[in-house]
Design a protein that fits this description.
90 residues; alpha+beta; Pemi-like Protein 1, Chain: D; 2 domains; two-stranded antiparallel ribbon
Length: 90
């Protein structure tokens, strides 16, 4: 059995590193998804499975239509917060 120390990052995020041997064994690399399941007070971690390829969401903004000061910045920021994959300003 391995033990790991819980570390705090930022104000409210706690992290625990994954054992390198296990990560290699299951083929995990930086940026991959893992799934957490709670079972009888324990936390089970499994390599994530991409069920479907996500459709990319693109947003096109016509800058000429943004007459108000700061409106373009607000629209770009809002689309970023909404998780748009591509924001194009024309």
């Amino acid at each position: 059995m391995e033990t790991r120390k819980v570390q705090q990052v930022g104000f409210s995020t706690l992290i625990v590193s994954l054992p390198r041997d296990w990560a290699r064994e299951v083929g995990l690399k930086r940026g991959d998804i893992v799934t957490f399941n709670k079972e009888d007070g324990a936390l089970k971690i499994t390599p994530g499975i991409e069920h479907e390829k996500k459709e990319l969401v693109k947003c096109t903004i016509n800058a000429d239509l943004c007459k108000e000061p700061r409106l373009l910045t607000r629209i770009i920021t809002a689309n970023y917060i909404l998780g748009r994959d591509t924001i194009q300003v024309v």
